[in-house]
């Protein structure tokens, strides 16, 4: 005789697994954002970080300060790892690796909880968290693959804000391609992102005009305008030079 759990028991179990997956994903992000970043430029500074998709002020603060206060992070690292080695730089590298290992472990746990639930926004969270971890470590091919895997899952997940996130993911894929000098693929990803951002901007403007009582979301419009401006510049800079340029129809994403 095969035991089959009651529907309520199954729902409770599913709810527990979803909660644990979310907790592990947030833990992983917390570990990632505690890694001291040495690069002077954050390649996705103009885009939302994964912390921005979670209602967690501590995560958002860690993400915001990771590049802005590298000296503070490095001081914390040295203090935490002083007992491991007398050399401060070795301490920092050891601590950095430990944090990424902890993040990898938590993301693996989250993936296990989501094994039977592939079409979920939480699965998108896990894939994008992995992508951001690769991006922080300079592994653009690894980051790109995670973001590409996340897109179809996002398309199959119902939820408010999915279009904005799809645009963000396409922009990050473009950044990965650009870093690998895949110019045409980068332009294609940027064009996809621009189409979505422009549609969202028009939607915000229409909502503001149709509602006299609602305060216009100027801050959100400002954010979108900034992203659109940066992506237009990146798109234009990636244009392949021609020996004998000929007039061509403008790309509608850039209008």
TrEMBL record:
Residues 234-243 have a biased composition (Basic and acidic residues). SMART domains: TPR. This is Tetratricopeptide repeat protein. The lineage of its organism: Eukaryota, Viridiplantae, Streptophyta, Embryophyta, Tracheophyta. Residues 234-255 are annotated as: Disordered. Coiled coil: none annotated. InterPro entries: TPR-like_helical_dom_sf, TPR_rpt.
């Amino acid at each position: 005789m095969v035991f089959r759990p009651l529907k309520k028991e199954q729902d409770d179990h599913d709810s527990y697994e979803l909660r644990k997956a979310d907790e592990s994903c947030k833990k992983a992000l917390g570990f990632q954002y505690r890694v001291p970043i040495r690069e002077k430029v954050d390649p996705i500074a103009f885009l939302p970080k994964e912390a921005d998709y979670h209602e967690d002020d501590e995560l958002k603060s860690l993400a915001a300060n990771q590049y802005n206060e590298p000296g503070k992070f490095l001081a914390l690292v040295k203090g935490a790892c002083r007992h491991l080695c007398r050399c401060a730089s070795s301490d920092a590298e050891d601590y950095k690796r430990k944090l990424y290992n902890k993040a990898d472990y938590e993301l693996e746990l989250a993936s296990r909880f989501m094994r039977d639930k592939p079409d979920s926004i939480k699965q998108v969270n896990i894939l994008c968290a992995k992508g951001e971890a690769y991006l922080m470590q300079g592994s653009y091919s690894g980051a790109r693959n995670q973001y590409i895997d996340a897109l179809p899952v996002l398309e199959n997940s119902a939820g408010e804000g999915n279009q904005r996130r799809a645009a963000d993911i396409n922009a990050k894929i473009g950044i990965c391609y650009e870093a690998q000098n895949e110019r045409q693929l980068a332009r294609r990803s940027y064009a996809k992102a621009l189409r979505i951002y422009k549609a969202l901007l028009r939607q915000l403007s229409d909502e503001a005009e149709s509602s006299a009582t609602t305060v216009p979301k100027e801050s959100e419009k400002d954010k979108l305008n900034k992203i659109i401006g940066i992506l237009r510049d990146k798109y234009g800079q990636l244009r392949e030079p021609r020996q004998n340029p000929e007039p061509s129809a403008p790309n509608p994403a850039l209008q």
